[in-house]
Specification:
This protein is α/β, with parallel strands linked by helices. Helices cover 29% and strands 16% of the residues. The protein contains ten helices and twelve strands. The chain has a twelve-stranded mixed β-sheet with strand order 7-8-9-6-5-4-3-2-1-10-11-12. Helix 1 runs parallel beside helix 2. The chain is globular, with a radius of gyration of 19 Å. Bound molecules: S-adenosylmethionine and iron/sulfur cluster. Iron/sulfur cluster (SF4) binds next to loops. The site of iron/sulfur cluster (SF4) has 13 residues, from loops.
């Protein structure tokens, strides 16, 4: 049992660290087409500052860390941060969420630095759609090479995250699921979350119940428990599939009752909940010379202020910040 728990007795052992708000893609569900105001270089935590926060959090009970963004691989020297975090005894799992564009270049260096596994966002297997969804002209093959590079250096399990959108990519559900059978992919289908300022619409939302119906053509999904993560996905397997099919339901079945996480933004704010605006600033106290104990008290303050649940189904959205600013 972790040493850290919130006001609702949920154990908190997982920290998601956003290392940048910058990204080389403009995914339609994530980034406003006009872009966002980016943080200045001085506002972004240095790797040393991230390390100091992670160490204090680990001393309180955090044992799992995920690096995210923005796109974490656009920040220079990321393997160095992984290497620093690996040196914190209490942290036993370091993972990365990436769009995969730069992954084939860095996979083996990341593995050597101590990264254990990766989640790669991939919403389509078609080049034309890839360009449409990501607002970029990168070749989709670059992401596929990133997947292969990660598998070849055993950054495993490699999980693929697909945000499902009606009329955009929902006709590819079965093609992705087929990859769990033919190629042993671990695919997770994610319900579209309604962030402010992005170009997706509520009519594009596909509930997991509908996703599952569409997959019936491939056979019966058997529940399985691969215990390969810290998150809320529910996992299944098609008969004879080596890979798994997971579903993440932030909207239709919120999983707040089992929430175990905190989020650190690139500019040093600790967010108790992705969907709420509350945050505790750690950067200014850190730069002002806060003591290790003072830093821990601030982390505990964020944990104590974790809300019981988000209000997406009731139409409540966070006021400020896109997911790239908060850290996805
Ligand atoms: N750039 C990296 C990537 O794309 O994997 C990491 C950051 S991204 C914000 C983290 C995750 O958030 C991705 O898996 C992405 O699919 C998911 N995400 C972003 N906006 C979303 C939305 N509106 N609904 C559901 N998932 C979303
Ligand atoms: Fe960038 Fe990831 Fe957001 Fe796409 S989902 S715009 S890759 S941060």
């Amino acid at each position: 049992m972790t040493g850290l728990s919130d006001s609702f007795q949920r154990p908190i052992n997982y920290l998601r660290i956003s290392v940048t708000d910058r990204c080389n893609l403009r995914c339609m569900y994530c980034m406003p087409a006009e872009g966002v105001k980016l943080l200045s270089h001085q506002d972004v935590l240095t790797y040393e500052e991230i390390y100091t926060i992670a160490r204090a959090a680990a001393e309180l009970g955090i044992s799992k860390v995920r690096i995210t963004g923005g796109e974490p691989l656009v920040r220079l020297g990321l393997p160095e941060l992984i290497w620093m975090l690996r040196g914190i005894d209490a942290i036993d799992d370091i993972s990365l969420t990436t769009n995969g564009i730069l992954l084939s270049r860095y996979a083996s260096e990341l593995k050597r630095a101590g990264l254990r596994r990766v989640n790669i966002s991939l919403d389509t297997l078609r080049q034309d759609r890839f360009e449409f969804i990501t607002g970029s002209d990168y070749p989709l093959s670059q992401v596929l090479q990133g997947i292969e590079a990660s598998r070849s250096v055993s950054l495993s399990p490699v999980k693929l995250n697909m945000v499902v959108m009606a009329g955009i990519n929902d006709d590819e559900l079965a093609s992705f699921a087929q990859k769990t059978i033919d190629e042993g992919w671990h695919v997770r289908f994610i319900e579209l979350m309604p962030f402010r300022g992005v170009s997706t619409k509520s009519s594009q939302f596909v509930p997991v119940s509908q996703m599952r119906k569409r997959l019936e053509v491939l056979g019966k999904l058997e529940p399985c428990n691969p215990s390969i993560g810290n998150g809320p996905a529910k996992y299944f397997r098609f008969p004879k599939a080596k890979g798994t099919t997971g579903f993440i339901t932030p909207v239709s079945e919120h999983f707040c009752f089992q929430c175990n996480r905190l989020r650190l933004t690139a500019d040093g704010k600790l967010r108790p909940c992705l969907m709420a605006d509350d945050e505790v600033d750690l950067k200014e106290p850190l730069r002002g010379g806060v003591s290790p104990l003072g830093l821990k008290r601030l982390i505990e303050e964020a944990v104590t202020s974790k809300p019981l649940r988000h209000g997406l189904r009731e139409g409540r959205k966070p006021r400020a910040g896109t997911i790239t600013q908060v850290g996805g």
